[in-house]
Amino acid sequence: MHPSSSDKPAAEKISFLLDGEIIEINDVDPTRTVLQYLREDLRRTGTKEGCAEGDCGACTVVVAELDHDGESVRVRAVNSCIQFLATLDGKELITVESLRGKDGSLHPVQKAMVDCHGSQCGFCTPGFVMSLLALYKNNASPTRLDVDDALAGNLCRCTGYRPIVDAALAMYDESSQRDASDDWLLGAKGTNTEKPLQEKISKLKSIRRTNNLAIKQAGRRLSSPRSVAELADLIQAKPDSTLLAGGTDVGLWVTKRHRELDEIIYLGNVAELRNISVSATHIEIGAAATLSDVMPVLVEHFPALQELFVRFASPPIRNAGTLGGNIANASPIGDSMPALLALDTVLVLREGQQQRELPLDEYYVGYQATALQPGEFLEKIRVPLPASSSGLQTYKVSKRFDQDISAICAAFCIGLDGDEIVTARVAYGGLAAIPKRAKQCEQMLLGKAFERATIDAAINVLDADFQPIDDMRASAEYRMQVCRNLLLRFYLESTGAETERVYGYNRA
Amino acid sequence: MTDYKHIGKDFVPPDILGKVTGKAKYAEDFRVDGMVFARLYTSPIAHGKVTHIDTSALDTMEGVIGVLTADDVPAVEAPNAAILTNSPAYIGDPILAVAAVDELTAEEAMTRIKVTIEALPFAVDPLDSLIEGGPDAREEGNIFVRSREGSGFRTVKWSQQQVDEFRAGKEPTGEFTDEWSYGDVEGGFANAEVIFEAPFVTTGYAHMSMEARTAMAYWQNGTCYVYGSAQSQSFWMPGLARLLGVEMSKVVLISENTGGGFGSKIGAYPIAALPGYFSKKLGRPVQLRITREQEYYIGSARVGFQGWIKMGFARNGRMTAADVFIIEDIGPNATGGDGSSAGGAVSLVYDPAAMRFRGLPVLTNTTPRGAQRGPGQNQIAAVMAPLMDRAARELHMDPLEIRKINAVNSDTTVYAEQLPVTSAYMTEALEKGADMFDWDTKYNQPRRNGNKVIGVGIGQGYHSAGTKGFDGLIRITPDGKIHLHSGIGNLGTYSYASTTRAAAEVLKCEWEDCVIHHGNTEANLPWSSYQAGSVSTFTHTRANYVAAMDAVDKMKAITAETLGGVADDYDIDGERVFNISSPAQGMTYAAVAARAIQLGGAYSGASYPDDIHEITQRAVQNIAGTGLIGVAKDKLAQEGVIPGLAAAFVEIELDLETGKYDILDYVGIAECGTVMHPQGLAGQMKGGAVWGMGMAGLERHVYDPQNGLPANVGYHQCGIPTYLDVPAVIRTSAVDLPDPQNPFGARGIGEPAMGCSVAALTSAISDALGGHTFGRTPVSRDMIVNHIAGKPQSFKPQQTNNF
Fold first, then answer.
1. B597 with B684, same domain?
2. Cβ of B658 and A486 within 8 Å?
């Protein structure tokens, strides 16, 4: 066995902050959700359950935690309906009830919602308020696009959304009857005075855990190791364990499918797995790094990913969900995979002490089936640098603009030497049982001139690469038609044909 | 324009504070001592008979409190919905409920129950049932006609050839059950310059209120207390009492806040009574909170249409005749009536000189149908808009002009009976919208830009927007407070509050001195209308007006009786009743209220008019002697149809390669008489616009025809618009001309706000595609790309509820 990250025995209780108070819970049920805890155990019913699957945002709460540097606070909105309570360990939970002052005064976010008439039936309102709070704490002067992004995870069926957008823009000008200099929650980003900020940091430090967590309750167990080595041992010992990262899918197994998860290993406290590093040859991403953390790094190197990532699920989901989870989950319609396939991504898999590298292209072996061996887990994701990938482009086609499963997701990476195509990686999601490269199409491109005739020939063999099915998201006919159209569009756009991009239209 | 103190002014509805702080309580937020949690077992098959239920595994299961089956609740006659049934007629039909110490235990219990169900034939597309030899959704027949002359099952079948011809877009020749007409239809077509026929399909879909419905109930001294998710308050009472099998006086309904309804919670629905029966059986309070998926089943859905229309137009653009045939998908419980309402909307919005409507309501084993925001009017709005564009094109007219030529105005007569309207200003709405939108420039702009093409469209929405005959109740207490009792209900439009401002207006008092009572039968609420059908504003400004006028009359009479003179010597100023010729002489409202208590009789509510509803009578009895009571039934003059109208203008940019479109601009104009509450009206117009956008392009039922399984049972599957699917700016305004049959000139707007949007967007899509009409909502990306690529569509003509 490896020495534990601390010599202390594993803790059996979790600690977190709520309304400034430290809450400690012994042997919490590993699959108790934050929402169940709030509504059933505490009877704090302001947080609502709209869908129990992270889609509607009525259950949005804000989680504050020490940033990686340990000297600042990071704030994010998450869906409490699929967040397990145990994952709050060491963090602060902020709910709609936390915002109102003891004197009954409203928080500026709440005041703006009232003034702008941003609530009708009101059932979605607490969730919107909390998404707005996350924006308020993270952005000093948001653009319209920032507001768009911050609210993309919340559904409203009454207001037509516009009054809520108005509130988002107005909230910075609202004042509170309370003394903002003494209240961390009241200050928008950048406006907090040192005192409440330092108090917040020291309080979060006071509950920061240095030992492991091991909870047993009602026959279920949750372990939260702090190092990769410990994680590897745990998985080797219990290869059938459920690995829990952001819980944006595992949460649904519990809330929607009522699956009993007897052994859970939570990855969120394994610091190495949350690392993101950039070297001359690749970007290396720990498997438990959240999508919100990963995306800016990838976009910096591959600007073409910007639009895809904005449309990737919703902020609460991206704040919790991880890139590793998106890959490991092996859904045929995961939005990250076509782009990662086009970028020739390599996975680092680990079993005990043994690591092996496997191209992502070889990872998927069948519908929701991967090349992972028992006891093995995804440790890191390596995206090659530099930009042999200058020709990267991605397209997502779904019914809704965001927060929707793609009917088709496409990524193209074409490298040219003069006029000749020397690299051709063409990948699609939604067209087969796995995210898949179009190998026959790629062969038609390689070595040819980058011109319309080549593209037309490549388009014509896409039928050989894919035989999609009809489902409620799109017909097979549509999928093939658009699959071809997107490759042509990529060519037209790359060669300078002026076309508007989908995102940003009439907005910014 | 009248200079009002409250009418037309924004205010902060009192309950909005609870909504932004999380204090607002919805049905699911209440807990009482000893309460247990129920969950539902619903039918996994589309049509069948329960032959055996085995719950023996629960006998020893820890935490399980009890089971409720169809045998424990009153049986109802098919096709009406039961609280629980042994004859499930759709997937999701409630069969039994389990109560446990918590919801998770109740859910776990469901997996241990064995229910044996014998399968019966089922239909998920009305045409599959209508064709010879096709399955019937109910053993009693495939048609259920609801009519004043007598309701009943029928079996109607069309020959293969009749169905084929209907699919081919020809006039239906099969049997129908409903018909009305006015004018000389044949003559109208004979005089037409342009005539065309068009088939159409509008797919039904769920309401998708944000709150999955909950009910909790317990009994105390023979009275059933129900905490419900209700769209209306007083209007629920007769139905709820009937469902519970008790007198209305033995039911208390608490419904402080409701997470949306959109027509699905207008009256008491069966599942709301389940906790009442379960609680009686267990002797404990029971809460039933259904799941999001069950909300897709039980929460009801819009009626789907499969139809055919023929229209004729004179050279000047006037519609000379219209002939409409609609097959209605009325689900398993024969609920709807949308078809005839759609016909009525054609008659009102486009005013054809002559018209015929024929309808056939067909049962299917799909989600139960019910009123959904503009039931009938909004489906047909989407059908009509691109066809009006087509007529304009064939007559070489501007699409705006042809709408103005046929626009409803205050002289238009409507429906089969050719009734008058109270007032209507559609022309003004169209002109105002065209001006704000800059229609002329946008209509004449270049349309193609690379792989993108611009489309512009105009839509018109209508719903009748008012009713009459309900009661108003106000009370002035000796502390000077004005108590406004509102029994409308609170589903989020704030009309429960905005309509009480009519009383404040009459009393000339400060809003800060007013207290609104609502949300609980025990808060002494008057008999009020349903909060639906866009009726609250018209109906309850009248009811509040008559109650406040009654109070003013009493205040003057009391003052005269106290200070001398006659009532007409006195007037009010908001705080005092004063002598007109000697203003210093008078009494404060507070003093008048105290005097009313002394004088008793009608002043204090000890007696009351005998024409008020029994619910209002009980409310008055309870508050009698606590102040000056103003109470009256609305008997103000009212004649003709009360129209709520709206017009919308949309510009889209459609991507020819993916079939996706962005909405670039949206202008919505309300024509609802005097604007009562500007923020509330803007909220309705914007919310309605987004609903229309969902209906036009996103929302639909999808059923697997092999097994009758619904595929859209989650938000992410049905895909209601997120706010990135709707335009960055939604501009709204109002015509703001008063209606003569409301004391303040107001009419309702909730439903037309959506109809104008779905119509304008459907029109714009058609425009972007060079006038192609799909004759179907929603218009999916697939349909657009298949059309552009010259490929056949993936469904049969007139098919519905399909992939």
1. no
2. yes
Contacts of A167 (CB under 8 A, 6+ apart): A109, A112, A113, A115, A116, A118, A132
* Residue B778 belongs to domain spanning: 383-466+640-789
A-B interface: how many C-beta pairs under 8 angstroms? 248
Q: Are residues B511 and B612 in the same domain?
A: yes
Q: Is residue B9 part of a domain?
A: no
Domain membership of residue B61 (yes or no) is yes
Q: Do A55 and B23 touch (CB under 8 A)?
A: no
**B485 and B612 assigned to the same domain:** yes
Task: Name the residue of chain B whose CA is nearest to A120's CA.
Answer: B492
Which of B107, B688, B715 faces A56 most closely, judged by CB atoms? B715
Residue/partner pairs of B395-398 with CB below 8 Å, 24 or more apart = B395/B193, B395/B194, B395/B313, B395/B315, B395/B317, B397/B317, B398/B443
Q: The domain that contains B525 carries what CATH number?
A: 3.30.365.10
Q: Rounded to a whole number, what is the distance in Å from the CA of A387 to chain B's nearest CA?
A: 28
| Spatial contact of B248 and B615, defined as CB atoms under 8 Å apart | yes
Q: Does A455 touch chain B (CB under 8 A)?
A: no
Distance CA B435, CA B433 (A): 5
CB A243 within 8 A of CB A235: yes
Q: Looking at the domain assignment, is residue B304 inside a domain?
A: no
In the listed set B255, B275, B290, which residue is the last one of a domain according to the structure? B290
Q: Which of B633, B651, B684 is the last residue of a domain?
A: B633
* B79: preceding bond cis by omega (within 30 degrees): yes
Query: Does residue B199 fall inside a structural domain?
Result: no
CB B236 within 8 A of CB B268: yes
**CATH classification of the domain holding B86:** 3.90.1170.50
State whether A492 and B451 contact (CB < 8 Å). yes
Please check whether residues B603 and B678 belong to one and the same domain: no
* Same domain for B502 and B628: yes
| Overall residue count recorded for chain B in this entry | 803
Q: What share of chain B is helix, strand, coil (3-state, %, to 5)?
A: 30, 25, 45
Please tell me whether residues B253 and B108 are part of one structural domain: yes
Residues B542 and B443 in one domain: no
Mutate to test the interface with B, among A31, A80, A110, A119 (most CBs of B within 10 A): A119
One DSSP character per residue, B249-298 reads GGEEEE-SB-S--TTTTSS--GGGGHHHHHHHHHTS-EEEE--HHHHHHH
What's the farthest any 2 CA atoms get from each other in chain B? Answer: 87
CA–CA distance, A238 with A221 (Å, rounded to integer): 12
B260 φψ region: left (φ > 0), alpha (ψ -120 to 50), beta (else): left
Q: Report DSSP letters for A69-83, one per residue.
A: TSSSEEEEEEETTSS
Same domain, B682 and B735: yes
**How far does B728 lie from chain A, in Å, by closest CA?**
6
- For residue B639, report the phi and psi dihedrals to the nearest 5 degrees: -145, 135
Residues of A in contact with B690 (CB under 8 A): 160-161
The full set of domains in chain A, from first to last, is 32-206 (1.10.150.120), 209-266 (3.30.43.10), 276-384 (3.30.465.10), 390-506 (3.30.390.50)
* Average pLDDT, consecutive stretches of 10 residues, N- to C-terminus, chain B (803 residues): 90 96 97 97 97 97 98 96 97 98 95 97 97 97 91 97 97 97 98 97 96 98 97 97 98 97 96 98 98 95 98 98 98 94 98 98 97 98 98 98 98 97 98 98 90 94 97 98 97 94 98 98 97 96 98 98 98 98 98 98 98 98 98 98 98 92 96 97 97 96 91 89 88 98 97 98 97 96 91 92 84
How far apart are alpha carbons B757 and B769 in whole angstroms? 18
Q: How far apart are the first and last CA of chain B?
A: 53
Task: Classify residue B538 as exposed, middle or buried by CB count within 10 Å of its CB (0-12, 13-18, 19+).
Answer: buried
Domain count, chain B: 3
